[in-house]
Amino acid sequence: MNIAVVGAGYVGLSISVMLAQKYNVKLLDISSDKIQLINNKKSPIKDEYISKFLAEKNLLLKASTNVQEVLLDADIVFVATPTNYEPEKNYFNVDSVVSVIKEIIQYAPKAQIVVKSTLPVGFVDEYRQKLNINNLHFFS
Protein backbone atom coordinates (compact mmCIF):
# COMPACT_ATOMS: atom_id res chain seq x y z
CA MET A 1 0.00 0.00 0.00
CA ASN A 2 1.33 3.45 -0.92
CA ILE A 3 0.44 6.13 1.60
CA ALA A 4 0.80 9.86 1.17
CA VAL A 5 0.44 12.46 3.90
CA VAL A 6 0.05 16.14 3.11
CA GLY A 7 1.19 18.48 5.86
CA ALA A 8 4.23 18.02 8.09
CA GLY A 9 2.85 19.73 11.17
CA TYR A 10 2.21 17.79 14.36
CA VAL A 11 -0.76 15.80 13.02
CA GLY A 12 0.73 14.98 9.62
CA LEU A 13 4.17 14.13 10.97
CA SER A 14 2.68 11.93 13.71
CA ILE A 15 0.59 10.00 11.18
CA SER A 16 3.60 9.64 8.87
CA VAL A 17 5.95 8.34 11.56
CA MET A 18 3.36 5.91 12.90
CA LEU A 19 2.45 4.46 9.50
CA ALA A 20 6.04 4.43 8.16
CA GLN A 21 6.91 1.70 10.64
CA LYS A 22 5.05 -0.77 8.37
CA TYR A 23 4.12 1.03 5.13
CA ASN A 24 5.79 3.14 2.48
CA VAL A 25 4.88 6.72 3.33
CA LYS A 26 5.56 9.84 1.31
CA LEU A 27 5.14 13.11 3.19
CA LEU A 28 4.44 16.41 1.41
CA ASP A 29 4.96 19.88 2.82
CA ILE A 30 5.56 23.34 1.36
CA SER A 31 8.49 23.98 3.71
CA SER A 32 11.77 22.76 2.23
CA ASP A 33 13.40 23.29 5.64
CA LYS A 34 10.99 20.83 7.28
CA ILE A 35 11.46 18.34 4.46
CA GLN A 36 15.25 18.50 4.75
CA LEU A 37 15.11 17.93 8.51
CA ILE A 38 12.74 14.97 8.18
CA ASN A 39 14.83 13.33 5.45
CA ASN A 40 17.85 13.78 7.74
CA LYS A 41 15.94 11.94 10.49
CA LYS A 42 15.38 15.06 12.59
CA SER A 43 12.05 16.40 13.74
CA PRO A 44 11.04 19.96 12.79
CA ILE A 45 8.75 20.06 15.83
CA LYS A 46 9.45 19.49 19.50
CA ASP A 47 8.13 16.07 20.35
CA GLU A 48 10.12 13.45 22.23
CA TYR A 49 8.58 10.41 20.52
CA ILE A 50 8.62 11.77 16.98
CA SER A 51 12.27 12.79 17.43
CA LYS A 52 13.16 9.38 18.84
CA PHE A 53 11.33 7.44 16.11
CA LEU A 54 12.89 9.50 13.32
CA ALA A 55 16.38 9.08 14.77
CA GLU A 56 16.24 5.44 15.86
CA LYS A 57 13.66 3.50 13.86
CA ASN A 58 14.04 2.21 10.33
CA LEU A 59 11.08 4.11 8.91
CA LEU A 60 9.78 3.72 5.36
CA LEU A 61 9.41 7.49 5.09
CA LYS A 62 10.38 9.91 2.33
CA ALA A 63 9.53 13.61 2.55
CA SER A 64 9.27 15.99 -0.40
CA THR A 65 7.97 19.35 -1.59
CA ASN A 66 7.09 17.83 -4.98
CA VAL A 67 3.32 17.32 -5.21
CA GLN A 68 3.41 14.93 -8.16
CA GLU A 69 6.19 12.80 -6.65
CA VAL A 70 4.25 12.33 -3.42
CA LEU A 71 0.74 11.85 -4.79
CA LEU A 72 1.40 9.74 -7.87
CA ASP A 73 0.55 6.08 -7.16
CA ALA A 74 -0.90 6.85 -3.72
CA ASP A 75 -3.60 4.43 -2.57
CA ILE A 76 -4.58 6.59 0.39
CA VAL A 77 -3.84 10.22 1.14
CA PHE A 78 -4.14 11.79 4.58
CA VAL A 79 -4.71 15.56 4.47
CA ALA A 80 -3.41 17.37 7.56
CA THR A 81 -3.22 21.01 6.52
CA PRO A 82 -4.20 24.06 8.58
CA THR A 83 -7.82 25.23 8.73
CA ASN A 84 -7.73 28.41 10.73
CA TYR A 85 -10.95 29.37 12.48
CA GLU A 86 -11.95 33.01 12.31
CA PRO A 87 -14.28 33.61 15.30
CA GLU A 88 -15.37 37.08 14.16
CA LYS A 89 -16.78 35.57 10.96
CA ASN A 90 -17.62 32.15 12.49
CA TYR A 91 -15.69 30.70 9.55
CA PHE A 92 -13.15 27.94 8.95
CA ASN A 93 -10.66 28.72 6.22
CA VAL A 94 -10.57 25.40 4.38
CA ASP A 95 -8.72 26.70 1.30
CA SER A 96 -5.64 24.54 1.90
CA VAL A 97 -7.73 21.39 2.27
CA VAL A 98 -9.73 22.09 -0.89
CA SER A 99 -6.55 22.85 -2.83
CA VAL A 100 -4.96 19.56 -1.73
CA ILE A 101 -8.10 17.56 -2.56
CA LYS A 102 -8.05 18.99 -6.10
CA GLU A 103 -4.37 18.02 -6.47
CA ILE A 104 -5.17 14.50 -5.27
CA ILE A 105 -7.95 14.23 -7.84
CA GLN A 106 -5.43 15.30 -10.51
CA TYR A 107 -2.51 13.03 -9.56
CA ALA A 108 -4.16 10.12 -7.69
CA PRO A 109 -7.84 10.05 -8.69
CA LYS A 110 -8.43 6.54 -7.30
CA ALA A 111 -6.85 7.22 -3.91
CA GLN A 112 -8.96 7.32 -0.80
CA ILE A 113 -8.76 10.81 0.72
CA VAL A 114 -8.86 11.04 4.50
CA VAL A 115 -9.01 14.55 5.95
CA LYS A 116 -7.52 14.94 9.44
CA SER A 117 -7.79 18.73 9.46
CA THR A 118 -10.48 20.47 11.50
CA LEU A 119 -13.50 20.98 9.27
CA PRO A 120 -16.92 22.57 9.56
CA VAL A 121 -19.89 20.21 9.85
CA GLY A 122 -21.06 19.12 6.41
CA PHE A 123 -17.78 19.81 4.60
CA VAL A 124 -17.22 16.24 3.36
CA ASP A 125 -20.75 15.82 2.00
CA GLU A 126 -20.64 19.26 0.38
CA TYR A 127 -17.31 18.63 -1.37
CA ARG A 128 -18.20 15.10 -2.42
CA GLN A 129 -21.07 16.72 -4.33
CA LYS A 130 -19.14 19.77 -5.57
CA LEU A 131 -16.25 17.69 -6.89
CA ASN A 132 -18.37 14.69 -7.91
CA ILE A 133 -16.28 12.21 -5.91
CA ASN A 134 -17.09 9.51 -3.37
CA ASN A 135 -13.59 8.78 -2.06
CA LEU A 136 -13.49 11.69 0.42
CA HIS A 137 -13.64 10.85 4.13
CA PHE A 138 -13.20 12.61 7.46
CA PHE A 139 -11.44 10.92 10.36
CA SER A 140 -11.34 12.59 13.74
Q: Flag low-confidence runs.
A: none
Structural class: alpha/beta
Q: What distance lies between the first and last C-alpha atoms, to the nearest angstrom?
A: 22 Å
Number of strands: 8
> Looking at this structure, what is the CATH superfamily?
NAD(P)-binding Rossmann-like Domain
CATH C-level category: Alpha Beta
What average pLDDT do the residues reach?
A: 94
CATH architecture: 3-Layer(aba) Sandwich
The tally of structural domains comes to: 1
Percentage of residues in DSSP E strands: 15-25%
Radius of gyration: 15 Å
Question: Helix amount, in percent?
Answer: 25-40%
Instruction: Label the overall shape.
Output: globular
CATH topology: Rossmann fold
Number of helical elements: 6
The H/E string reads EHEHHEHEEEHEHE
Structural account:
39% of the residues lie in helices and 21% in strands. The protein is built from six helices and eight strands, in the order βαβααβαβββαβαβ. With 140 residues, the protein is of the alpha/beta class. It has a six-stranded parallel β-sheet, with helices on both faces. Strands 5-6 form a two-stranded antiparallel sheet. It has one domain (7-138): NAD(P)-binding Rossmann-like Domain (Rossmann fold, 3-Layer(aba) Sandwich).
Brief synopsis:
This protein is of the alpha/beta class.
